[in-house]
Design brief:
two-stranded antiparallel sheet; 2 strands; alpha+beta; single chain
C-alpha cells in the first residue's frame, strides 16, 4: 500500500486535516472493509460504549478508507 515513510507523511497530513473537520466513517458490514480498502476488520480493536459496539480503525487504516471513500460515488 506504500512505503512506511510515505504512509507516515500521509497519516500526519490526514490527522492535521482531521483536526480541522469532525467526521466519521461507518459501514453496515465490517467484511466490506477488506475488498473496499484493504482493511481486515477482524484485526480492529473492538469497543463497547454506552450500549453501542464498534471497532476502531488505526490512523493508517482510516487513511486507506478515507482515500477510497473520496473516490466512491455512493
Amino acid at each position: 500500500m506504500g512505503d512506511a515513510k510515505s504512509n507516515n507523511e500521509e497519516i500526519r497530513a490526514f490527522i492535521d486535516k482531521f483536526r480541522e473537520h469532525k467526521f466519521a466513517i461507518g459501514f453496515s458490514f465490517g467484511e466490506d472493509l477488506l475488498p473496499f480498502a484493504g482493511v481486515d476488520y477482524k484485526n480492529l480493536k473492538a469497543v463497547k460504549d454506552d450500549g453501542s459496539a464498534y471497532r476502531l480503525l488505526t490512523a493508517e487504516d482510516y487513511l486507506y478508507v478515507y482515500k477510497k471513500s473520496l473516490k466512491d460515488s455512493y
